[in-house]
Hints:
The protein is 42% helix and 15% strand. It has 361 residues and is an alpha/beta fold. The strands form two sheets. The protein has a ten-stranded mixed beta sheet with strand order 2-1-3-12-11-4-5-10-8-9, with helices on both faces. A two-stranded antiparallel ribbon has the order 6-7.
Amino acid sequence: MAHRVTLIPGDGIGPEVSDAARRCIEATGIKIEWDIVNAGQGVWETTGTVLPDTVIESVKKNTVALKGPIITPIGEGFRSVNVAIRHALDLYACVRPARSYEGVKSLYKNIDLVIIRENSEDLYAGIEFEEGKDQTKSLIESIGKMSGKKIRDDSGISIKPISRFACERIVRFAFEYALYHNRKKVTAVHKANIMKFTDGLFLRTAREVALRYEGKVKFEEAIVDNMAMQLVQKPHNFDVLVLPNLYGDIISDLCAGLIGGLGIAPGANIGETMAVFEAVHGSAPKYKGLNKVNPTAMILSGVLMLRYLKEEAAASKLEEAVKSVIAEGKEVTYDLKSNPIDPTAVGTSQMADAIIKKIRD
Length: 361
Ligand code: NAD
């Protein structure tokens, strides 16, 4: 029977990499009926919203989606559609494997890390108060009265909620992931020395959850700034990392850097009954429509999706085809060539064709 999967092409380079991933997934022989729905800047122009209800309804109905990146304007304009989708569907766990592939130029070899990022709260909760607004002034006044601390009158404020509930479920998810995938260690990353009531709660909860896995999976703690340094100096010392939302976002880009760039870093947003698969990278607007960027991150997100659908044979076939095309280094995009202006670099869709050919060989 065919799987029904929601496909959200996204904007910027989204439609190009989504199309490449869709074609590669279909080449494995798996039957998928795609329910194609759109979100982002493009739909705003026609519908007046960046996230039509039809998108959320489609994912709720199909329970699985493959999503291209969507633009979020910096500092002004609409809020992130990507964050809104994760919140609306309670996709609380963001899973981002960072694995070295032979043939990718990178300072490091044999990296094999998994970042588990909490997706539902922290500074991404979207609770913000704009500088100069009456509400902000009265909040500053109330905080002054309650804490005895003076916040400058011309401040903007972003709220960082961290709950015991969300910490417990993300750390449990990380340990269950480690057990299922035969991983040896979970490292909880925090800044509890400074933020005692938010990151402190995350760390205390992580320690409690870790006790339940004693003897099965090792537990370790690291302060986020020190973690950043250690990942650059000795990344092989780490295995599964679990982090609150903001640190998870930053550290997963750092880990993408360790394996050779955003072009090959896949991801998944997982909830209790639903999952949305998307690359770590964004919509790279300057490359929009150029058939230039690397489709691998999106295709590997498709591999994660096939595993979630329990289509292990198709997932392995696709992953092996990707590995083989990258290792040969011929029909790959500019970012995988030693010289980024190498004229033999192929386009997004030609790299997908090469992967499809490998699947069929
Ligand atoms: P980005 O990831 O879009 O691009 C940064 C740079 O990384 C690009 O200029 C390019 O050099 C490289 N890159 C990214 N994807 C690549 C690929 N597939 N192949 C080769 N090189 C690639 O980050 P940005 O420029 O900070 O963000 C652009 C927009 O994307 C913003 O609006 C941002 O909010 C949004 N964004 C969306 C998501 C998402 O949809 N989940 C994630 C991150 C950023």
